[in-house]
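To start, an entry.
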Amino acid sequence: MTLYAALGAVEQGLVYGIMVIGVYLTFRILDFPDLTVDGSLPLGAAISAVAITSGVNPYLSLLLAMAGGFVAGMVTAILNTKFKILHLLASILTMIALYSINIRIMAGPNIALLGVDTVFDAVTRLGIPAHYAGLLIFGTFAGLVLGFIIWFMGTELGQAILATGDNPQMITSQGVNTHLVIILGVGLSNGLVALSGALVAQNQGAADVGMGLGTIVAGLASVIIGETVFGCQTMARAFIAALLGSIVYRLAVALALGLQLGHFRFNPSDLNLITAVLVIGALITPNLKKRLIAR
């Protein structure tokens, strides 16, 4: 793997790490299986791209994208809490609806960001090469999101989200409205996913309705790899592990795609297979360690 490929993998790991933090919030903290992310990531990209092409400041477009993702997550949570639709089914319904909504927002399946400023332009104007500009921007946003989520989980609302996922009966007896907590938690998760999508769109110079395909699989793979490699003994360490797991996952994928054994080599179409193998490896590693220690 070349240095350029490694830097690209780290870039992707950082920007999609924001999405992974959102996935960790729902799957591990709230215990809420949420497939909305496959739709909220392109939603954030679509909103940001349309806003920028309409003359909106690229940084403001990120806030608009987060707001859109937050609303999408709220819809899923409301379907589950208020209308008693199974969380998995509620998220699938929202994800399906978002496919059409995203096309409607972009007035087509995709939209290009040609001749408009993005968050990367201010950095490249300073003379920083484009591939390092992406690393700087993504690293900054990932660090800000990580710091925010660690601080947020220490607040009263953050503790309520943690308690709701851990023991909803207990927290309900304390007078906490668990429905509202779930709605806010799932909304925040999808807001972060949409932010990730908006940054990816600005970096790639386009938003596409299909760019969210497989997002949840990559997110879960990153979470599992992060927990296995870096551990999750404390809340702060768990979120840091999720972000680092995203980087390790992208590096592993890049390494696998660049691997060649004789006449055999992986193709981009093998990405799902590579992901499945990585997740299986991460899941069985702890058990293998226990067996080896027992011997």
Q: What stands out?
A: Strands lie at 110-112, 206-208, 260-261, 264-265. The chain has one domain: 3-211.
